[in-house]
């Protein structure tokens, strides 16, 4: 029998995986991808909780999170392109000084 | 009840494995493709949760639009394979990065431990169709009504957010204004 | 007598087989119709009136050598045509092509003639159309060749742009039919007004039908929107580097996408399997006839209209078709509220 605990545990593991990715990887695109993994973990938790209380609120929240993630991915990738044009690298450690 | 458990473990394992490959993959193109696989597995999980609308939205928006955007950017920037997983050229060295990753594992372990020790009232069967409001969940009409009445303000704000993001993305990626 | 799952499995096999046969028929009829439009003979050597030509084509394609360019990413190169072909077949899984029947009592229950009767079928269709962009993008990228990459990027951006108008015209049909399930959309089109005009949505939504047809042609990369495959500019676009069997998969995927687009247009706007003079259980004949008419229209358009240039194509999609589709949706919604049907 699959209980709510199963889904929340899976969501926690996915969230931890995303967090590891954001900390360890030194490429801006992979960091953005890890952030998407974290957002997905949160979506799973929302829909699971919504199902357990029997209302559609979980899906509505998931819908909003997906929309915000889409907007954030668009702007984030535009920033990545603009940064790449200046320094030709995707390593965030190369952008530590404020002066171009 | 065996099929529900089997489906959950199958989709869960694929989602977790694909996410690990996203995080640990060297080639950014492979990371993007593994993330798409992870989204598909999550859509399967949403279907086992009686939420077909959530599953379809996941595929249409996440796997169908956002990931195409990522693919375009990866192709445009011609992102190469990384040499080392954690570059030693970080300003403070690699140790804080490992510490951060270790803390993430601790977080996951803590959550799992807390859930295992929680009182057992927290879970009736999830995906066996035993929920009294399965019809309310599955109906897109009900979801639409919720979206436009209770969450109407958030809906309008989201549309403004999307316009702002669109304008921002176009302006930021231009060569000269 | 026949249990339900056997009957459903039979439907799956029938749909798969019929799609393959229809792709072969499309290949032949495209060449014949093109020949008639251009006032020449088409294929006439192989079989009576050239009818075995598709079989000859398939045999030729299978026996060619499968090439792979040197710098190509091996896994992605082989994966891309599979994604295209799989998405093309899967999209037909939610399309109903006949009324509910139980074969005069042979099967236990009444089954509807579709592989999966989902009640979010319209959205699933849209989702699978979004996924088919990946086959093209991955094919272009993994071929490691400039013609492929350019063709793939152009084709992908064209498909994404026209998906919006496609989705909005689907939404207008949804507003009129009041349901997301394709079976219910077709059943809302049964019956006649005044006894002889059928209740098809094409009469309620002419603009929607026009938008859907144009977006469908652009989605399947057919002329006049086939700039990404233009022979004069791009060698062959995203499938330049593919030979034998992977090329056959792309070819197949394109024709099956056309058949699926025609089937969806029939279900949404032309009344599906409803038609005069035939009993309900022979409705699939009407369905085939309507699909054949739409596919003939596609082929006719290809060999009559000139090709749009890429920037004209994108301008048309964003500045003309999308506002028109949005306006159509608003007017439809207003009409439904006002007339209350």
The name of the CATH superfamily of the largest domain in chain B reads NADH-ubiquinone/plastoquinone oxidoreductase chain 6, subunit NuoJ
What's the SSE pattern of chain B?
Answer: HHHHHHH
CATH architecture of the largest domain in chain B: Up-down Bundle
Distance between the termini of chain B: 60 Å
Number of strands of chain A: 0
- State the end-to-end CA separation of chain A: 58 Å
Write down the CATH class of the largest domain in chain B.
Mainly Alpha
Rg estimate of chain B, integer Å? 21 Å
Helix percentage range of chain A: over 70%
| Biggest sheet record of chain A | none
Mean pLDDT of chain A: 87
Rounded mean pLDDT score of chain B: 81
Biggest beta-sheet profile of chain B? none
Walk me through what this model shows.
The complex is a heterotrimer of chains A (100), B (177) and C (341). Chain A is mostly helical. Chain A has a single domain, classed as Orthogonal Bundle (Helix Hairpins). Helices cover 78% and strands 0% of the residues of chain A. Chain A has three helices and no strands. In chain A, helix 1 runs antiparallel to helix 2 and helix 2 runs antiparallel to helix 3. Chain A is elongated, with a radius of gyration of 17 Å. The termini of chain A are far apart. The mean pLDDT of chain A is 87. Chain B folds into two domains: 137 residues, Four Helix Bundle (Hemerythrin (Met), subunit A) (Up-down Bundle), CATH 1.20.120.1200; 39 residues. In chain B, 73% of the residues lie in helices and 0% in strands. Chain B has seven helices and no strands. In chain B, helix 1 packs antiparallel against helix 2 and helix 2 packs antiparallel against helix 3. The longest helix of chain B has 26 residues. The radius of gyration of chain B is 21 Å and the shape is globular. The model of chain B has no long low-confidence stretch (mean pLDDT 81). Chain C has one domain. In chain C, helix 1 crosses helix 10 and helix 4 runs antiparallel to helix 5. In chain C, a hairpin with a 3-residue loop joins strand 1 and strand 2. In chain C, 43% of the residues are buried. Chains in contact: A-B, B-C. At the A-B interface, helix 1, helix 2 and helix 3 of A face helix 1, helix 2, helix 3, helix 4 and helix 5 of B.
């Amino acid at each position: 029998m699959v209980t709510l605990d199963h889904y929340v545990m899976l969501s926690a593991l996915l969230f931890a995986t995303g967090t590891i990715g954001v900390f360890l990887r030194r490429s801006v695109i992979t960091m953005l991808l890890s952030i998407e993994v974290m957002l997905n973990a949160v979506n799973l938790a929302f829909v699971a909780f919504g199902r357990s209380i029997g209302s559609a609120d979980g899906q509505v929240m998931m819908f909003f999170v997906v929309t915000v993630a889409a907007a954030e991915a668009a702007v984030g990738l535009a920033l990545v392109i603009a940064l790449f044009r200046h320094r030709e690298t995707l390593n965030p450690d190369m952008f530590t000084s404020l002066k171009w | 009840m065996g099929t529900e458990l089997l489906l959950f473990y199958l989709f869960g394992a694929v989602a977790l494995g694909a996410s690990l490959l996203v995080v640990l993959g060297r080639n950014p193109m492979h990371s993007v493709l593994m993330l798409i696989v992870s989204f598909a597995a999550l859509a399967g999980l949403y279907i086992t949760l009686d939420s077909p609308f959530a599953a379809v939205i996941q595929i249409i928006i996440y796997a169908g639009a956002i990931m195409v955007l990522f693919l375009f950017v990866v192709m445009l920037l011609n992102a190469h394979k990384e040499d080392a997983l954690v570059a030693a050229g970080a300003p403070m060295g690699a140790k804080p990065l490992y510490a951060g990753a270790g803390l993430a594992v601790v977080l996951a372990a803590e959550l799992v431990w807390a859930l295992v020790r929680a009182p057992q009232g927290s879970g009736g069967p999830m995906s066996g169709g035993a929920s009294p409001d399965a019809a309310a969940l599955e109906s897109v009409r009900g979801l639409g009504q919720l979206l436009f009445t209770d969450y109407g303000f958030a809906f309008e704000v989201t549309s403004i957010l999307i316009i702002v993001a669109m304008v921002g993305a176009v302006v930021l990626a231009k060569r000269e204004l | 007598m026949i249990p339900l799952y056997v009957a459903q499995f039979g439907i799956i096999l029938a749909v798969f087989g019929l799609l393959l046969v229809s792709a072969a028929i499309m290949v032949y009829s495209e060449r014949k119709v093109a020949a008639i439009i251009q006032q020449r003979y088409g294929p006439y050597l192989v079989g009576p009136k050239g009818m075995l030509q598709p079989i000859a084509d398939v045999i030729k394609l299978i026996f060619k050598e499968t090439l792979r360019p040197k710098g190509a990413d091996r896994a992605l190169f082989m994966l891309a045509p599979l994604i295209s072909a799989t998405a093309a077949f899967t999209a037909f899984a939610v399309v109903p092509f006949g009324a509910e029947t139980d074969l005069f009592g042979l099967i236990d229950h009444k089954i509807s003639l579709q592989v999966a009767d989902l009640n979010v079928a319209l959205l699933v269709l849209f989702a699978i159309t979004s996924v088919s962009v990946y086959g093209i993008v991955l094919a272009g990228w993994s071929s490691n060749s400039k013609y492929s990459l350019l063709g793939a990027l152009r084709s992908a951006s064209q498909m994404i742009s026209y998906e919006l108008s496609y989705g909005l015209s689907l939404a207008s049909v949804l507003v009129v039919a009041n349901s997301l399930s394709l079976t219910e959309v077709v059943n809302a089109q049964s019956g006649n007004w005044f006894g002889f005009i059928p209740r098809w949505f094409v009469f309620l939504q002419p603009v929607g039908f026009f938008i859907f047809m144009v977006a469908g042609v652009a989605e399947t990369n057919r002329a006049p929107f086939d700039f990404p495959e233009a022979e004069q500019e791009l060698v062959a676009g995203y499938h330049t580097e593919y030979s034998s069997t992977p090329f056959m998969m792309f070819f197949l995927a394109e024709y099956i996408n056309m058949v699926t687009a025609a089937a969806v247009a029939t279900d949404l706007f032309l009344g599906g399997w409803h038609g005069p003079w035939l009993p309900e259980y022979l409705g699939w004949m009407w369905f085939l006839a309507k699909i054949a008419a739409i596919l003939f229209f596609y082929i006719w358009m290809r060999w009559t209209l000139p090709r749009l240039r890429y920037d004209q194509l994108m301008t048309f999609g964003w500045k003309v078709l999308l506002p028109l589709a949005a306006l159509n949706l608003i007017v439809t919604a207003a009409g439904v509220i006002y007339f209350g049907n």
